[in-house]
Amino acid sequence: MEFVPALAETAVTASTASDAVPLFTEPILSEETVAEYLGEDWAFVYRNREYLLWGTVVTIALTITSLLLGFLAGFPAGVIEAYGGGYSRAFVRKFGVLLRGTPILVIMIYTFYVLPIGIVLDPVQSALAGLDAVLGPIPVPDVGEAFMAATLALGFRSAAYQSQIFRGALQNVDEGQMEAARSIGMNRLEAIRHVIAPQALRRSVPGFQNEFTIVLKDTSIAFAIGLGELLKRSNDLFFQQTTAILEVIIFASLIYFVLTFSTNRTLDYVSNRFAIPGESS
Amino acid sequence: MSERNPDDAGGRIESKRERESVAGTADAERETEPLLRIEDLWKSYGNEEVLRGVSLEVDRGDVEVLVGPSGSGKSTLLRCLNRLTEVDSGHVYLGETEVTGPDTDPNAIRQQIGMVFQDINLFTHLTARQNITLGLRKVRGQSKAEARRRADSELDRVGLLAQAGSYPAQLSGGQKQRVGIARALAMDPEVMLFDEPTSALDPELSNEVLEVMSQLVAEGMTMVVVTHEMRFARGGATGITFLDEGKVIEHGPPDQIFDDPERERTARFFQSIRHE
Predict the structure, then answer these.
(1) Domains along chain B with CATH numbers
(2) Could you tell me whether strands B48-58 and B222-226 are parallel, antiparallel, or unpaired per DSSP bridges?
(3) 20 to 30 Å CA-CA from A279: which of A11, A127, A211, B253?
C-alpha cells in the first residue's frame, strides 16, 4: 500500500471496512476485560451472547410470522365485519369475541397440546424442505411444533385484534367515498380495493403499531410451551448461574426494548411517509 | 305536465311505443326522443314516502333544474337516476336503455351518468389528477399515459391544470368541486347530475363552480341540477321542475315558473326564498 500513495485514501476505507466485518466472531472485548470492569456475571452474559442472540432471532421470527398470520386473517375479517352480511359477519364477530376473551397462554396451550399440530406443521415442513431442495441449504431453523403452535396462537389472537383495527378504520372512511367510487362505475369490491382500503390502511398504522408491540412482547409467553425464544433462553442461563439473574434479565429487557423502540420509530416514519398531504394523520 | 294520474303513465308508455316505431325508420324523429325519461317513480324509506309518482323527461342538451323545499325528494330523485338509491317502482330510461331494468348493470350505466355531490367526495388519498385517472384506469381499462392525458385535459377544462398534483386537503372547496366535476366528465357521461353542488361552499367559492357549470351548459351538456342558486336556474336552465312532498307540482321554462307560476304552491315557494 505504501508503494502506491495515490490509492492511499481508498485503501484506508477498504481496510476499516474489512476490520468491521469480523467484529462479531472476533470481539474487541475479551471476556476477561468484561469480567474485570463489570464483574463475573456480566462476563457470563457476554460469554453466552450468541445463545441469547439466537433466542432473539426466534423472538423476531415468531413476531413476524404471528403478525403476518394476524394480518392475513385479520384484514379480511375486518372487511367482513365492516361490509359483510349475514352469517359470515356473525361468525367472524363471534370467533373474534371468543379469541379476545381468552388469555393468550390458554390459547397457546390449546394450540400446543390439544390441536393436532402435525396437520399444519407437516405441509409447512415439506414446503421448507422443498425450498431447501431448490435453493440449497438455507439458514432457516427447523420449524418445530412449539414454534408452529405459538405462531397459531399469537397469530389468531392478533387477527382478532387486528380485525377490530381494520374494521374501525374502514368504517371511519366517509360513506361518500364509496358513493363517489360507485358513481364512476366501480363495483363494491373495486371501490373497497382502490378507494376505501388505501385510506383505511393509512389510518390503521397507529393501531397496528400498538398491536406490533403487544405481539412482540407476548412472544415471551411461548416460554411456557418450551420454545427457545429470548426469555426461555435467558431463563436457561440464569438457572445455570443463579447469581446472574439480574444481569441476564436486564440484557433481555434491553433487547426487547430496542426491538419495540426501533420498530415503532420505523412505523412512525412509514406513517409520515404515507400520510395524505394536507391532512393531519 | 306531470301531475300524477294513475292512467297517465300507461298512456304515456303507449305513446312512447308509437314514437319508437316511427323513430326506427326516421333519424329525425330519433332526435326528438328524450335522452332521459323518468316514469312514475315511487320511493319510500320505512313509512316515509319520499317520491310519490314522479315523471319527467329531459331532452338531449336540456338543463333541467329541480327546485323545491328541503325534504321534497329532489336529491332522492337524482340518486334514483343512477341507482345510488334503488326505486320501489317506476322506470328510468337513458335513451334506449332502461336504467332501472333488472338486467341492467348499474356499474355500466353509471359511467354514462356523471354525478357531482354536495359534499364533493373527492378521493382524499389521491391527487386531483389521480382522482380522475382512477376511474379511467380501473373502470375503463385505459393505459396510464392515456388516462393521464385525459385527466389533464379535463382539469384544463375546469381551469385547474396547475393544481393537478395537489391533494384534496390542499385545495379550496370551490377547486375541489371543480375537480369533482372533471372526474365525472372524464367518464364521457351522456348526462350529468348535480346534487346541490354549491351548498357546502361559501358564496364566493360557489361562483367558480357555477361558472364551470355555465360553461358546460354552453357546450350543450345534458344536465339535471338540484340547486338553490336561482341565478343559475334563471340563466342556464331550459326547464324548471318544482317538487314538493315527493311530487312534481309544476314544470316549465324558467321565466314562466319564476314570474308567472300556475300553481299557488310554487308561487308561495318562490315568494319565501325571495324574502331570505
Answers:
(1) 6-274 (3.40.50.300)
(2) unpaired
(3) A211
Selection from B103, B13, B101 nearest residue B55 by Cα: B13
User: Is A180–B123 a contact, with Cβ atoms under 8 angstroms apart?
Assistant: yes
Q: Which residues of A touch B (CB under 8 A)?
A: 174, 176-177, 179-187, 190, 194-195, 198-199, 202, 276-279
Strand duo B63-67 + B48-58: pairing = unpaired
Contact in structure between B128 and B171 (CB atoms under 8 Å): yes
Q: Per-domain residue ranges for chain A?
A: 31-273
Classify domain A31-273 by CATH architecture: Orthogonal Bundle (1.10)
CB contact under 8 A, A177 and B121: yes
User: Residue B78: in which H helix or E strand, if any?
Assistant: helix B74-81
Interchain pair A184, B187: CB under 8 A: yes
Taking contacts as CB-CB distances below 8 angstroms, the residues of chain A near B187 are: 184-185
pLDDT one-digit tens code per residue, B111-163: 999 999 999 999 999 999 999 999 999 999 999 999 999 999 999 999 999 99
Say if the Cβ atoms of B107 and A183 lie within 8 Å.
no
User: Tens digits of per-residue pLDDT, A64-108?
Assistant: 999 999 999 999 999 999 988 889 999 999 999 999 999 999 999
The neighbour count for residue B247, using CB atoms within 10 Å, is 19
Model-level pTM? 0.77
What is the spatial distance between Cα A134 and Cα A149, in angstroms, rounded to a whole number? 27
The distance of B90 to chain A (nearest Cα, Å) reads 21
Q: Is B94 helix (H, G, I), strand (E, B) or coil?
A: strand
- Name the phi and psi angles at B126, rounded to 5: -120, 150
Q: Does the beta-carbon distance from B167 to A278 stay under 8 Å?
A: yes
